[in-house]
Amino acid sequence: MLRWIGYAVGVRLPVRYNEWARYDATSKHWRARYVLQRSVGIVPLCAVWLLMPGPISLRLLAVLMAALVAYFYSCAYMEESVEHRLGRQGFPHNTGRRLRAEAAEAANAEVTARYLARYRTPSEG
């Protein structure tokens, strides 16, 4: 658990976890995993805003503002951040983009083949 928290805040994992880091950056749900990892840094920030003195409505609005800004900037640079993380693990530049593109291409080829098999007659080719 502590290793994952460290990874979520930017600590480089040992080499034996390289395949897991590659999977983390290229899996089907890599965006959701990224947002979850960014929450490790955002939740404590929001907790600090919530514990500040003042009316609860003001504190809740401050938490909402902090969370929205933090998630906006985290997600705006999502691909670059993931590529940087893979580079820190020792993978070549653009490894994540290349692997995600290859997986998307394979999935699209499968969908296209199913479509052609279902809606095209052999004479239409």
TrEMBL record:
Q: Looking at the record's lineage, which domain of life comes first?
A: Bacteria
The keyword Transmembrane helix belongs to this UniProt entry's keyword annotation: yes
Q: Transmembrane segments in this chain: where?
A: 35-52, 58-78
List, alphabetically, the InterPro entries matched. DUF5313
Designated name of the protein: DUF5313 domain-containing protein
Q: Which UniProt keywords apply?
A: Membrane, Transmembrane, Transmembrane helix
Origin organism is Amycolatopsis balhimycina DSM 5908
